[in-house]
Amino acid sequence: MPNDPQTEARLRAAKFVAHNIPLAPGFSTRPGEPLIGESPRTQAIHDALRLFMPGGVQGKTAVDLGCLEGGLTYELWQAGLDVLGVEVREDNLERCRLVREWFGAHERMDFVQADVRQFQPARAFDVVLCSGLLYHLDDPAAYIGQLGGLTAPGGLLYLDTHVAPEDVEMAECEYRDYLSPLKTGERNGLPVRWREYAEDVTQAESSIGNTVSLWLDVASHVDLLLHAGFDRVFEMHGYFGPREMALKRRYARRYWVALKHA
């Protein structure tokens, strides 16, 4: 039953650490923090749906890979998609399910416990959300290939990830002390460049099963996306005002939309 007192009590007692999801006027999962829908990153996702799916999203399916506490899963559901959140940590899933229970959203919002690398759904999705995930993997090139298989013909991949800075950008990069020198090699039959990143596995949002992740450079991301079956790749800007590129260099972050023709 949506909005029942027992679920409210459990939500108030739950310790959400990442996503501030609005539940009712004056009631959210992380009081005092900005709501997840107010984040520029979330606004970019909604813009991508509006701009690249002009026919609307009603009746279409989505997957939120590595969904943490379900904040972006909730945003996709609110946008009108039938959405599945994939999360490996049980404590995160408990919070996801509480949100679903609160809204009575069992028909159009679901969650599954799985490592995204082993996630093999019965069918592909119209919208694939890979936000804050790719840079926690030790073989992101291989996973971009999996993203191609998860995205249905005519579908959209939204990719929000850290990237390996160029040498001239390292001095202003927030993560320079945790990144290796640039390395080169071959992945999926393509030449790629990356930096190794030392994971802090004590953090709730860190990697699963690996202490070192790989951050691909910008060109490698684009080449691998096209190789994975996407026909067009767009980079999104305009969410942080003037000096946005300086901010993106500082945090070594990019937002891409990759499209597959029907």
Could you characterize what this model shows?
By secondary structure, this protein is an alpha/beta fold. It has a single domain (37-259), classed as Rossmann fold. It is built from seven helices and twelve strands. The chain has helices spanning 5-13, 40-52, 71-79, 90-103, 140-150, 218-227, 244-251, and strands at residues 22-24, 27-28, 61-65, 82-87, 109-113, 125-131, 151-162, 183-187, 190-198, 212-216, 232-235, 253-259. Strand 1 (22-24) and strand 2 (27-28) form a beta hairpin. The mean pLDDT is 95.
Q: Key features?
A:
7 helices, Rossmann fold, 3-stranded antiparallel beta sheet, 7-stranded mixed beta sheet, alpha/beta, single chain, 12 strands, 262 residues, globular
Brief overview, please?
Helices cover about 30% and strands about 25% of the residues. With about 260 residues, it is an alpha/beta fold.
